[in-house]
Design brief:
The chain has 121 residues and is α/β, with parallel strands linked by helices. The chain has one helix and eight strands, in the order αββββββββ. The structure holds copper (II) ion.
């Protein structure tokens, strides 16, 4: 074997490894996010506030509203296209995310309670 060729091969190998090391950290999170399994997001209703007030989701995810107050609340779409119904204290309701869930919602009993659901980027 000629030493010169081995050296060249090593250089090419190291260059490929360096390029992979530079690109992988950026490609893996993108891959993981676009192909991730559906997750369940929790929205606590506490002290007359939806927490978090702004939630980012993907279709297929689930949202669970948990009423941690001592009075009933609802989560109701601004356009009334969906509604959890009245949640008594300690009650919860889970809805699977479809396009119609995106947008603003409020509590029918306390209309000043507002929150929104947006698409995760
Ligand atoms: Cu309420």
């Amino acid at each position: 074997m000629r030493p010169f060729q081995m050296q060249r091969r090593e250089v090419v190998g190291w260059a490929a490894a360096a390029i992979a090391a530079a690109i992988l950290p950026f490609t893996i999170p993108v891959f993981a996010e676009t192909n991730r399994k559906p997750v369940t997001h929790i929205v606590d209703i506490t002290d007359f506030v939806f927490v978090p007030k702004s939630l980012e989701v993907r279709p297929g995810d689930r949202i669970t509203w948990v009423n941690k107050d001592i009075v009933p609340h609802t989560a109701t779409a601004d356009d009334k296209s969906w509604d959890t119904g009245a949640l008594k204290p300690n009650e919860r309701k889970t809805i699977t995310v479809t396009k119609k869930l995106l947008g603003g919602y409020f509590c029918r009993f306390h209309p000043s309670m507002k929150a929104k659901i947006a698409t995760q980027k």
